[in-house]
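Attaching the record inline, Q. Sequence:
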Amino acid sequence: MTFKLVDVEELVAQAKMSGVSKISVDVPLLASYSQDACVTQTQWMAGPHSNKNYAWLHVDAEGVPFYAGYGRGAFAWQKNGGVAWEWFVRERLGGEYRVVVLAVGMSDAHAQSIFEQMLEMYNKRLLNQTSFHRGMDYAALKEENDKETAIRPYYVAVRSKKPAAVIFEAALTAQKLQYDLNPYRTETGRFGEVLRDMDAYQPINTSFITYIVEWYMGQGDIEAAREALAEFKRRAPRHNRHERITRLDKLVGRGRFYRRPSWLDQ
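Structure, as predicted:
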């Protein structure tokens, strides 16, 4: 199918001249678009349609769509697609992408309608975070949310005045639950792939590992403390330079406390 910009305003004017009160506008949505279909910001802003509503796509070097939108003026050329869009354009496209304007000269409602058609047509290929068609595993999402909910009581438990052994067991249980979190499984489309590649989620935090390592050190089990810290660093490498982790590194390296944590004697 050959690409042609759909000028809705022009079609409405032609229909009125022909005595037609209602028209149907068909916007062709292609699998990919040639260079001829692309337009630069300079070309668009110098043309007659720059202040009208228009629907557009961002496409890669092969002309394959990866983002959709609608608006006026230079909106399609503004870098406003969110963190996944920014990472994808920078890391996967080398900062280069093109714009295809599909239709122009329509009402806000019609522009929104065409936008929804694009989201549905290109579904899992797009990086539009707000799209319900981007590929979501809602069963997995519920499971992950339930797992996060199950961890919450442990944040309170480890800061309680309960015996040290109880706090240690709570921290150990919570840490295992964190290790089991996998938020990436909830996304099944390109958006999820990009989040995974950019390591966007941080399901594991440093709230529990301190109690685990300090407990083992307090028991004189330096090897267990070293293994627990090593596993945490392997599973959550982004935290390796966190103040808590560097402190635990030094503690395990020394093999003893300078000052024994008070919670160990509760």
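The chain has two domains: 6-125, 138-265. The mean pLDDT is 93.

More tomorrow.
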